[in-house]
Specification:
Blueprint (H helix, E strand, L loop, with lengths): L1 E5 L8 H4 L2 E5 L9 E10 L2 H7 L9 E2 L3 E9 L11 E4 L9 H4 L7 H9 L18 E2 L9 E5 L3 E4 L5 H5 L4 H12 L7 E5 L3 H11 L5 E5 L3 H9 L4 E3 L4 H8 L10 E6 L4 H7 L3 E9 L14 H6 L2 E4 L7 H13 L9 E6 L3 H9 L5 E5 L2
Parallel strand pairs: 4-7, 10-11, 10-13, 11-12, 13-14, 14-15, 16-17
Antiparallel strand pairs: 1-2, 1-4, 3-5, 3-8, 3-17, 5-6, 6-9
Helix pairs in contact: 6-7, 6-12
Amino acid sequence: MVSAVLTEAGRSRPYRLSVPLSLETLAVPLPRAGEVLVRIERASLCHSDLSVIDGSRIRPLPMAIGHEASGTVIDCGDGVDDVQAGDRVVLVFVPSCGACRACRSGRPALCHRGAAANASGDLLTGPALLRSEEGERINHHLGVSAFSEYAVVARESVVVVDADVPFDVAAMFGCAALTGIGAVLNTGQLAEGQSVIVFGLGAVGLMAVMAAAQVPGTTVIAIDPLPEKRALALSCGAHVAGTPDEAAGLVAAHTGDGQGGETGVDLAVEAVGSARVLEACLPLLTRGGALVSVGLPHPDQTITVPAVQFAGTGIRLLGSYMGDSVPERDIPRYLALWRTGKLPVELLHTDTRPLAEINEGLDALADGRVVRRLFVTA
């Protein structure tokens, strides 16, 4: 099978010239006990992939990249009896063991064993299976390695969906939907009649906009420097959109009780991955408001904020990994909203390209020229 493999992080842009991802021929692994062989039908390029390629997220190399995808089950290993060949699946980038402290507390996105396997480049079910033609170990990316013709994953890394869900749509529910929608509904617990501001209108931020817009009576403010992203946010349900410089004025104009009381949003979602933006969000919250961080700042970035404001005004800073989602519960729930038109995720699909154009796709994503570019791997 052909796979996109990263051997060196931190190469300079443009990536179409430095070529960080090489298309290599790997042996198709056979599924072990508890594993599933999936033919990848569509794979999406996400900023989390880019953060590994630019060196912001340190992962063991060489690594077959990609973590957001949809596919068809080809074969199952021993002990897998609830998935069968021919099933259409969404791949999930945190396989949950079901037994650790996080899983037992109902937070499988924070699974301890899943996180350890992802950090080491292994699978939840055992050591890495991927090998180069020379026999060199190739690490798995987040238990998926989606920019490949095939993937062997732990059973816990797939969610079966209805056969009529298009692969283009299904692919975006493995990361962008879980993260963005979950940030609003699970982590932020946005309630009817509240207000929300979303910074950063990539796929995750726009999913957050869609989720907020389907809660009755909400006011949704969308912020991004790019006019085309702001226009897309309005199509996704935002009531008003503006630039970062306009954010404070929009909050003042569109929140409050209309009686001269304090303005401020109930919920802010930071989907940029910037410490500076996190700091800028806090003053926009009303008393008791919450800031949800879903972006991935570089590990060297820090924030400096007045400590008294947390106890003094009751505001909260909440980290949200994979949107605090429970994939087996939330993917069907979110797809049900998609079917009713409340989550028009097709608007986020920029285009579909062959896997041979993956490095050019990295440039387009880094430049903000695409929201979700999908790749056909076969």
